[in-house]
Amino acid sequence: MRLIKVLLFIISAMLLLVGCNETNYHFDGLSMPSETEIDRINDWYIIPEIRSEDIQYTEVDGKLVPELVDYHRTPGQRGMFSPHSIDSDMALEKGLLDDGQFGQRYFFYWALYKKALEEHLYNTLPLRRLDEAIANHEPYVEPIDTESHGFYQSHSTMGLNYVFLRSNPCIERLDVADLILLQDAYENNETDITEEIRDMVIRTYREIIKPRPFSWMEKWGETDDSQLMIDYGFRWVDSDCAPNNALVFEVSFSYTPSYDVDESYEQYQRYLKDYEKFERYLKDSLINPFIRRAEKIVDIPVAVIISDGDYRIFQS
To answer: Of 168, 187, 199, 206, nearest to 33 (Cα)?
Structure first.
C-alpha cells in the first residue's frame, strides 16, 4: 500500500510538469530562492562527486579505507559533520526533482513549510524579545546589511533584525500524505498557511530539521542524536556546533566600535576586549536564558550560533 501511495504521488507530481517550462520563482507571501541560488544548490547536491553520501578512500597501511568526505574529528572532540541540508537521493525517489534538478516545485514546498515553521516558532518562543534586547544594547550593535545576508537570513520570514532560523527543513523526509498537502497548495498557488499545513508542520518539524536522518546515522555507526555534532559555522569550533536533534538559530550582527580599530595595536587590543565583553553579555544575559526557556517549550535541544558579520574578530 505504501508503494502504491508513493507511485501515485510521483505520477501526479510528474503531471504537474506538463506545459510548465517557466522559470518564475516568485510567489507572493513566500521567500523563494532565486534562480542563481537554485543553480548553486543543484551544482552542490546533484553532481555525483559531491553527493551527500559521497565517500573518499584514504590509504592506510597499504589498504584503501573508505571515509566520508565531510567527516571531521579532532583530538578530544566528538565527531562533527557539516550539515547536508538536502537528501537528493530521497528527493529523487519521491518525485520531487524536475528533470533531475531541484526547481520551482521543490522550493515552493520548502518555502511554504519554512514559512509555517517560522510562524509557529515566532509565536511560541521569545524570539522577538531576544532580537529587541540585542537592538537595545549600549553601545548600539548594528545588524548585518541586507546585501550581506547569507542564504538562511535572506530567506527568513520572521522579520527580525538579528535572529533567524538556521535549521533547514528537509521536506523530502515527509511522508507522502504530508507532501500531498504541499502539492495541493502548489497546484492552487496557495501561499497562506492553512490549519492542515500548520498542524502537519508542528507534528513533523522535530524530525524534518535534523541534518542527518536516523537511517544515515545507522549506516555510519551513529545511534545517538545528542552525540552526533553538526558544525553550522564551518570553522570547526565547538561554539558553532549543535547536536543533530537541535533546533538551531543564528544571531548575526556587525560589531563596529566608535573608535578606529586599525589606528594602532593598542586600539585593536581594546577592540578585542570590548568584543569579548559584548559576547559574554550576549551569551550569559540573553542567549542562555532564551535557550533555557525555548527548550522547555519545544522539548528538544536548542542552540544559538553567534556570527559577527565583519569576521574581524576571527581574522585575528
So the answer is: 168
Encode pLDDT of 224-258 as tens digits: 666 777 777 656 566 778 888 899 999 998 877 76
Q: Where are the domains of the chain?
A: 2-315
What strand order describes the sheet that includes 71-72?
A: 71-72, 80-81, 229-231, 241-243
CB under 8 Å to 106, separation ≥6 — which residues? Answer: 91, 96, 97, 98, 171
List of residues 6+ apart from 92 with CB closer than 8 A = 100
pLDDT band at 17 (very low <50, low <70, confident <90, very high): very low
On whether the pTM is more than 0.70, the answer is yes
Rg (Cα) of the chain, in Å, rounded? 21
Q: Where are the beta strands (DSSP E) in 111-262?
A: 163-165, 229-231, 241-243, 247-253
C-alpha cell at 38: 537554485
Q: How many angstroms separate the CA atoms of 302 and 296, rounded?
A: 10
For residue 252, the number of C-alpha atoms closer than 13 Å in the C-beta half-sphere is 22
Indicate the helix (H) or strand (E) that contains 278.
Answer: helix 265-281
> Interior CA angle at 27 toward 121 and 94, to 5°?
75
